[in-house]
Amino acid sequence: MAFLGISGMQYSGEMFAGARIIVAEDSNVFTSMISKRLKELFDIDVEICRSFEDLQVSYDKSSDPITLAISNINLPGAENGEALEYLVELSIPTIVFTGTFHESMRDKLMAKDIVDYILKDNIFAVDLLAESICRFLTNHRHHVLIVDDSATARALLSSRLKRYNFRVSVAESGGKALEILKANRDIGLMITDYNMPDIDGFELTRRIRASIGSHELRIIGVSSSSNRLLSARFLKAGGNDFMLRPFIDEEFYCRVNQNLDTLLQIQSMRKERAVA
Question: How far is CA 114 from CA 64, 111, 160, 219, 244, in A?
């Protein structure tokens, strides 16, 4: 079946029966809704853990790696967030599903390098959760190139993208980026800094657009500059999007998703026209 996410994500119908998904949640209503929806969409039989003890037993009883965990912040036996700490310490990718949220909590969650957080405060909560799970399970099909002359910036962006399960390549210069693109035609998204010593982001984008169109590669420009006109110049050079540092994690991931969603939609339309 085809699945169109709340945010516009298109899903071709791939099943994930081999994925091991743990749901650490004590609400019967939500565990039932999540189980039913994931089985319906992706043929996933989730493991339900209604307490911290259940979670520990579930991890210990099987040597099969946990693909992804969905966890409430507070569980019986772990009323102070111990379950989430447990999952993070085990390096298990985790989506937090919570009804309690405020700014300081959000900061604590993002500091733990979780995959995502979904709020239980609307009727679309389970569908949003399903979409987040689907993105994590399919992001490996996307190859992203990061171009930045700063090792720190490259490491930061790389870690963010790998957290979401993307395949990532890095280039320390515009010249190196051109080499990597030539050798890896499966790269669908490039995130490039503007200010680089050999080829700046504008010139790099112009050179790329001479042979690679937006139907093959999406380009997001980034900069720490306070010059608001940089975005206009970058878009005129052939870029698809532009962001100013420092990033907000949620906005960064949303922009990445939107550009890759657009790329898939364009490619799907071109295939349909070719067949017709």
Answer: 21, 8, 10, 26, 23
The 3-state DSSP class for residue 236 equals helix
What token pair was written down for 67?
């693909």
pTM listed for this prediction: 0.93
List the chain pLDDT tens, one digit each, 276 residues: 466 678 878 777 778 878 999 999 999 999 999 999 999 989 999 999 999 999 999 999 999 999 999 999 999 999 999 999 999 999 999 999 998 888 999 999 999 999 999 999 888 999 999 999 999 999 999 999 999 999 999 999 999 999 999 999 999 999 999 999 999 999 999 999 999 989 999 999 999 999 999 999 999 999 998 888 999 999 999 999 999 999 899 999 999 999 999 999 998 888 888 887
Look at the chain and count its residues.
276
Q: Region of 256 please: left (phi>0), alpha (psi -120 to 50) or beta.
A: alpha
User: What are the angstrom distances between the C-alpha of 173 and each of 100, 197, 205, 225, 229?
Assistant: 43, 8, 13, 18, 23
Residue 14 region by backbone torsions, left for phi larger than 0, else alpha for psi between -120 and 50, else beta: beta
Residues 115, 95 contacting (CB under 8 angstroms): yes
Helix spans in 43-149 (H): 52-61, 82-89, 103-111, 125-138
Cα gap 137→147, rounded to integer Å: 25
* Euclidean distance between CA atoms 163 and 10, whole angstroms: 21
Answer yes or no: are the C-beta atoms of 174 and 203 closer than 8 Å.
yes
Which residue(s) pair with 69 in the sheet? 22, 94
| CB-CB contact of 52 with 73 (8 Å) | no
State how far the alpha carbon of 18 is from the alpha carbons of 29, 61, 162, 163, in Å: 25, 17, 21, 20
